[in-house]
Amino acid sequence: MASQIGTTVELVKQHIRSTFSLMVREMSTRYGGKPGGYLWALIDPVAHIALLSVVFGTIARAPALGSSFMLFFATGYLPLLAYNSMTSFVAGAVRANRALLNYPVVAPADTVAARFIVQALTTAFICFLVLGLISVEDHRSVFAGLEYSIVFFSIFVAMLLGLGVGMANIALFARSPLYEQIYSIVTKPLFLISGVFFLADSIPQPFRGILLLNPIAHIIMWFRSGVYSEYRAVSLDVSYALQCAFVAFFLGVLLFTFSASHLREEKN
User: Fold this and answer.
1) Where is the ABC transmembrane type-2 domain (predicted)?
2) What are the residue ranges spanned by the domains of the chain?
3) pTM to 2 decimals?
């Protein structure tokens, strides 16, 4: 029994070391080779939010919530970004580290864990800086009125949903290039149907019911309720968002686990 425990502990330590090494490699290859490094991770969401603010600011007097167009679009864009970036980053974990899987000490799960942690930290960094920049722009602190528990958990659920879909896609992309192309096409409208630039509550039936089948729409409403104290998201169903995230995570782990040996043998 003691020897089994010792073997298990050593195995866990080995995976922790592999994951940490992969994290360092991911950060170096993803940001280290680009001018400005992490600055580019911030420029993209800020540019999207600023563009939406300018466009909608010219055709509307005020946003659907509050008085700041930038804050309104940020509260829609950041949760979607947390999901999208996690999904795409995790989905490429095994493919990007294919050569390292030739070493027995590196498992496919290590590459996923490394990318999840790196992307989670990056998302938190982006959210904090975007909200900070909006505070400077609006000359008032956004952080003062935040419900931090709601903001944190909604972003975490978005990333958990993205992790589950990303792990499932690792297995499915490896088995079907056609599915990869179809997935890319089908998910492109997410920006338009998730409630980034409108309130889901304002959509008339039956279209609202269809839109609310999208768990990201609920996550965005949840996130916004943590930023705007006056916002009453009557269509928000937190339990539905949680169920979708946990089901996606469970199915992702299942597909990924059963495909582990295939992923090691797959050729680029």
Assistant:
1) 36-259
2) 2-265
3) 0.89
